[in-house]
């Protein structure tokens, strides 16, 4: 069992505490925007925000998150108005869309003061557009000392950059 706050709602997950957060969100809370991709932390499709940090939900047991505040793509911005969502739409970054929620969550966490490294991957070739999303979202972030130097994209999907 684990008590968490998910998208502003208190939830008491009465499941095996070793269950990955990904499956608690998808199977118990019906929050299917968080995607299952690789099961080894490499793709980032399952990225959510836990206590302000981007987290790969496939890799963290729900039992380790007692009392945590979790935000999924469904709870990110009212009607899609978070600046990361707006930047995604403005740059028309979607191709297949599978990596979209994870990237948006990683970008949102970085914008809101979380870790600046975005290591999510895109297998279909949208990475050039996604890099423009990151730049646009960064520009929309309120100015704070040191913000610009801590935001980077460390994706290993570089081979896809030549296709758009």
Can you offer a commentary on this structure?
By secondary structure, this protein is α/β, with parallel strands linked by helices. The chain has a single domain, classed as Beta-grasp domain (Ubiquitin-like (UB roll), Roll), CATH 3.10.20.30. Helices cover 26% and strands 15% of the residues. The chain contains 4 helices and 7 strands; from the N terminus they run ββαβββααβαβ. The chain has a 5-stranded mixed β-sheet, sandwiched between helices. The protein has a two-stranded parallel ribbon with strand order 6-7. Strand 1 and strand 2 form a beta hairpin. Helix 2 crosses helix 3, helix 2 crosses helix 4 and helix 3 runs parallel beside helix 4. The longest helix is centred in the C-terminal third of the chain and has 14 residues. The termini are far apart. The C terminus is likely disordered.
What is the fold's blueprint, element by element?
Blueprint (H helix, E strand, L loop, with lengths): L1 E5 L2 E5 L7 H8 L18 E4 L2 E4 L12 E3 L11 H8 L9 H12 L5 E2 L8 H14 L11 E2 L11
Parallel strand pairs: 1-5, 6-7
Antiparallel strand pairs: 1-2, 3-4, 3-5
Helix pairs in contact: 2-3, 2-4, 3-4
């Amino acid at each position: 069992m684990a008590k968490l706050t998910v998208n502003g709602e208190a939830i008491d997950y009465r499941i095996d505490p070793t269950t990955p957060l990904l499956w608690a969100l998808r199977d118990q809370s019906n929050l299917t925007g968080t995607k299952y991709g690789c099961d080894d932390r490499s793709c980032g499709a399952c990225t959510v925000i836990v206590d302000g940090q981007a987290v790969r939900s496939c890799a963290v047991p729900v039992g380790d998150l007692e009392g945590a505040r979790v935000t999924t793509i469904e709870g990110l911005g009212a009607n899609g108005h978070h600046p990361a969502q707006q930047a995604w739409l403005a740059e028309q970054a979607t191709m297949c869309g599978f990596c979209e929620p994870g990237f948006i969550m990683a970008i949102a966490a970085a914008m809101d003061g979380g870790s600046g490294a975005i290591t999510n991957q895109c297998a279909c070739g949208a990475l050039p557009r996604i890099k423009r999303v990151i730049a646009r979202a960064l520009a929309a972030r309120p100015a704070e000392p040191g913000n610009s130097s801590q935001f980077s994209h460390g994706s290993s999907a570089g081979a896809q950059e030549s296709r758009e």
